[in-house]
Batch of 2 targets.
Target 1
Amino acid sequence: MSETFQERLLRVEERIASACHRAGRPRERVRLLAVSKTRPPETIEEAAAHGLRLFGENRVQEAQAKIPLCPSGLEWHLIGHLQSNKAAVAARLFRMIHSVDSLKVLQALDSHADTVLPVLLQVNVSGEASKSGLQPEDSAGLIEAANAMQRVEVHGLMTIPPFTPDPEKARVHFTALRALRDRLEQETGTPLPELSMGMSHDLEIAIEEGSTWVRIGTDLFGSRN
């Protein structure tokens, strides 16, 4: 008999709570972002009926078509790569962009946002060639640039470590992102409270290393067809 959504959600919530307890962190400091990419509106409606309000999408075009078909009152975040030519739509659709990786995208979001738009800088701390993201040494310049803009505000950093079956191997990358955040706060004088890191298989490690947003898809919604 297959698991219900409620059972999967309960198990994820228990994992988050246990990791917070081990790390001596308040549970409310870690937000669960339900990764709803490729999932139909009916699935999101079921998740919303179980109390989830925060959803992450990878593609602007998919989100633009899907969000009007989903329950109102949900908060949408972009976690996938953003091109500057999609910034106008993204600035309107999303409450936060987790994946800013260039000055061009930052400038485009600033010019199209109607209100203050929180963003996270996606940093490639692993150096993996196939991953999007800024080089760590370029992060301070982007934060300084954002500080001079009208609407975008950098609230923290995001990373995606290389996938490995052993979640413990992600720890070095999460530790590196947190250390970079701490250094950037000192260098730029900018508060950077948010760290978006950790997915279904490594959320515990991410929380132990300071994550404030865990991005969970498979363990909530099941494997994609």
Note: Residues 5-221 form a domain with the TIM Barrel fold (CATH 3.20.20.10).
Target 2
Amino acid sequence: MRLEPVDGGDPRAVLRALRAAVLGAGPAVALGGGVAAGEVGPGTSVVVTTSGSTGHPKSVVLSRSALTSSALATADRIGSGAWLLALPAGYIAGVQVLVRALVAGRDPAILSGTFSPAAFAAAAGAMASSEGGTTVPTYTSLVPAQLQTLLDAEDAGIRTGLARFEAVLVGGQALAPALAERADAAGVRVVRTYGSSETSGGCVYDGVPLAGVDVRIVNGEVQLAGPMLADGYLGEPERTAAAFIRDEAEGRRWYATGDTGTFDGALRVTGRRDNVIVSGGINVSLDRVERAVRAVPGLAGGVVVPVPDARWGEGSVIVVARGDLGGRDPEEVLRAARAAVDAEVGAPARPRGILPVSELPLLASGKPDRAALRALAVASGARGDSDRGSYGRPIG
């Protein structure tokens, strides 16, 4: 199969290429840059290259079967209809919006230009259609930052339009409880999704695996199996073997996510195995700290990043968009956050400081750029000791 690079910044070009790769005879589509034209296995439809927040590029090989299995399982769970693409088409979440539309036999609506409440409303408003007198259900997929932007819009009609979607898939990062409550109050049916490029996008919805998807916990790590799994990483057999574990006894493959969690019929992801600091000799999960912090008013979109700490070795700082604080004093917000972390995680996990910035830097996927946020926190001096809160020089 021939592999051809496509500009992920041009959603209509991606749609055309996916139509050929998923519904036709190819060629396969290379998205995300870093992969030249060449040959891939006969079943390959898409190769998605992403560095995520870690800075280590990975080119994930996805078959036509994996992509369509995921799309059909989504339709089985939430229904089928018309889709609006509001995410970058070069990342797996955007790819799957387009694939779901193709599998449903409908051209997707595409948000043109930069994401904004007005652009979203215009694209959503153009979707209304009916068949035989019955309204066609509409769907879209967002990251939490986009959802917050729409809920914050001054025009109440934008929130009303958002509530007309049959379902709004939200993934890419954890959804803060306060933001989920706001969406619910606005009548928006949010479906939280969990997955990655390696699983053809979201494969667990609201904690429940999609049809055909299995979940197991091995030594605290979440592992996933099912027809939506990627074939592996392009040109990296060792990395593929480490991430995609073949269970010979069961005769199936499992993807080791690197996430920690529990599963008792519903999946609860508790953090990343690699997002841990050692503070005063104690292991601290920054994912747990961030969940506690985001329950504090003004910090629903806050991001917790590690910083050096002269006394304890490592500590953490909360970086938050200044506008989200709503005029609250950062010192007071920090005290509330530390109290929440004390109650949920323990005193050794207390954030050392808070850093208000003009806006949070984001990756092209819409996720917070944690490497950039950590650099900002370190440069600003936004750190203190475990007994006294501080916040550094505001950035922007």
Note: The mean pLDDT is 89.
